Amino acid sequence: MVFKGMVNEFGAVRLDYLTTWNYKYEFVLDALKEIISVDLKDSVEGVWFSEKEESTGNVIDELVENDMKVRKCPSIVQEHDIVSVSGHSRIMDADIRIVFFKGLGGVRIYLKDKKLIRKKGKNAFDKYMDSLEIHAYCSAAVRDALSVEPDETGAV
User: Fold this and answer.
1) N or C, which end of the chain has less CB nearby within 10 Å?
2) What is the pTM of this model?
């Protein structure tokens, strides 16, 4: 992913990224699966959607009922314009919110605590975002190559 900029917004730091390629909703589902299963694990605070000006409430209960498996949640699998997930990143040791904008290739990270950025600089999340993008595209490649749906662990 390409780092596009940093903004102080609503008392948080917002990091803007652009994916290497414009993505479809399948990418968002694969990225959510990676974020939840690999990084946030038990610290997921919520998943939200937005359609134009309207947003849904937190659908964390549905995710918990489905053993944190993104593709088993009907409300998550249904295509949305904007999807966000929040929780504590074990990898970055920070409370984060990641927002995906379908069709635009845009991804945002919000950080409440600015100390990580002060300590490591504005590019602190570059490798994290690159890894996320690669893993999401790898999940799609497996699905396309084998014409099967991978489970939530990425296995076929």
Assistant:
1) C
2) 0.85
